[in-house]
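Can anyone check this?
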Amino acid sequence: MQTMRYVGFLILLLPYDVSAQTCRTEMQIPSSTPTERFVENGDGTVTDNDTGLMWMKCSLGQSDPDCSGGSVAAYTWKEALDIADSYTFAGYSDWRIPNVKELRTIVEQRCYYPSVNLAIFPETPNSFYWTSSAADFDSSGPVWSVSFDHGFEAIAFTRVDPRKVRLVRNRSF
């Protein structure tokens, strides 16, 4: 009986990002982020033709064309905002933290662990990502975040818990 308790305890210690992606079929749920909706720009960015937003393919901290290099970094909300404000990537310096509505546009509704199109956003962890959206009118209060394990929004009641970051910019025409 003691062995079973330890096994359960060890399972709880496993990293949160260990599950493999599972997706329902197109017949069950149509894709919310079909690959053909995005244009690969060849510079580590993709453009969403539906929203007009340009996204970094990789989360901050990742590198290589397939995001397999480096490791995903986590930041406090203030750190994330500061990094975005001064970040230059692919020749652009107007990167920012997406608002909650924008970040929700890249959630793949038919998949989980992670709930994202991995052909477009490879190596995305099953983690919470910061948004720039305050959850209320208090400038020091909670902030919305989006979880890419099941693709739901959640309120981060403290701005100092580390969360992942994917940057976005408005596409230049």
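Reply from J.R.: I decoded it. The chain has three helices and eleven strands.
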